[in-house]
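Encode chain A's predicted structure.
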Amino acid sequence: MSENEKQTVAKKFYSLLKNANHKKVLTLLLPFQIGASLSEFLFGNELQEFISRLNNESEERQFQIIKMLEMLMDIKTDQLYPVLTIGSANAETIFKCGEDIILGNKHNSEMVNLYGGSGVNFAMRLLAGGDLAIPVLPVGDDDVGRKIIEAIRNTAEDTKTPKPIINFLGTDKYLHKGIKTPTSGILISGAKRTIFKQNLEGQEYFHEHLLAQLKDIEDIFSNNFGTVMIGHIQSDKKSGTSTKEILNRYQNRALIYTVLGNSQIGHGLDFWEKEEENIFNYIDVFQLNMEEAKRLFRNGQCSMTSEQILEWFRKKKLSAVLTLDKFGAIGTYRDSEYVYVAYPLLSEREVIDSTGAGDAFAAGMVSYLGNNRDFDDVGFSKAMQKGRLWASCACKHVGGTGKQPSSHLKEFIRKNPGYDKKNIEVREVNHTQELLKFIDLIYQ
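Encoded structure for chain A:
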């Protein structure tokens, strides 16, 4: 390399780093393995140390990094911000029976051991799909907890997730000695399923454990999160403290996508809508399955109709998705006077197991939206389209994390050409009344 070339490299090097803030430098270099000496400190250290360490690299290596930066400065980096997935975690023992179950009788079945829970499902779907995800989970320092973290780490390694995330997944900070990781039993008979769940033992320790994990993750990843996903938090059954903490902590800092569970829904709508701490003001996309929505929007013995629920979201200017198990989903975009209808891609007989399909739908939407809090109606529709595709793929396999996107998704699309391009139907509210009445008959 000539002297002039060296000077050019040095000028470009310092100019690029001087004009790029810390967050942008980390974001741009995050997907690249640029040498062990660099990958160990990309997260969590200040820009000055970053520059200092790069100065110790060879001139040729500096030139390579500059080329990376120049190329990446011009591309959209929304998807490069990690997704924080917070929710439940458990082992799953799945019994698949090829005949109708009759209590008291013996039945032959296939048995599969997997892992699930909303926090696990979100993270593993996203990682397998090529997105960056960091889970925060209520897992104990026990055999089940260690196996869950190992399964997530293996998924990350299989999809070439950047080394800092894999390293973090390898720490013991996920495991809490006071928590016992639960196991769920899932019985599948034809297109029907029944789930048996254990309560989370030691859930009183989770909020403190959550705060500790968030602090560690924020320190390592410099508070740079594209999306925060909140699933079922069992310890919120008494007060909703953890959900409120997460929403207050990340409001206006990341896209917030919620798929609340029984513990949070059980408090009722009034609890969450208190004027001084109305959580709905902090949420960008709110998702529930229709059965859960009917419980949340219950007034005494009567639930709102589907039309009333969608109108409630419109008045709040809150984008929402209501999933219908194996029958698709409906959605509303902020205060738009349209209903977004995601008809199912699979017939009922093609569905093997819908466990975790709602979580797969949410992960697909987040994969599309990235960190874009200002998504428009077209983006919302495209996100629902990707969510439906991921959920449909999930329904072809047993368990919440049985088969992930990536190669399995490509195979699903190959066998079902056009599924990935099938648009969401957009209808005016007045033209969906009959459909919504039919949905109410199913979920009454």
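The mean pLDDT is 82.
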